[in-house]
Amino acid sequence: MIEKMKKFSIFFSGEQGHVLEKLQNESMVEIGALPETFGFEKILTDKTRIEEKIARLEFLKGVVKKVEGKDFSGRILLSGEEERDVVEKFPLEEIYGRFLKISGEVERREKLAARISTLKNELETISLLEIIPSDLFSLRNFSFLLFGLDKKSQYFPEDMDGVTAEKAGEKGNQVFWMAVFPGEMKKKVLADVERRKGKILNIRRWNKKPVDIISKLDRVFENNCRLREKAEREMEDILRYKNRIFVYYDHISSVLNYVLAQQRLGSSKFVKGFAGWIKAKDVARFEKFIKEHIPEAFLHTQDPAPGENVPISFENTRLVEPFEVVTDLYGRPAYRNIDPTGHLSLFFAVSFAFCITDAGYGLILILLALLLMKKFRLMPAFAKFMKLLLYSGIATLLMGIITGSWFGDLLKRLPESFLPARALKGLVILDPLGGGNKAFIFLGWAIIIGYIQIVWGLVLNLYNSVKETGLKKSGEAVSLLSIQLLAGILIAVIAAGHKRDMSPYFIRVPAVLLGLSFLYLMQAKAREQKGIVMKLFWAFYGAYNVMASNLLGDILSYSRLFGLGLTTAVLGLVVNEMVFMSTGIPYAGYIIAAVLFIGGHLGNLAINLLGGYVHTSRLQYLEFFTKFFESGGKEFNPLKKTRKYTCITGEKGS
Question: What kind of fold does domain 130-208 have according to CATH?
Answer without folding.
Answer: Alpha-Beta Plaits (3.30.70)
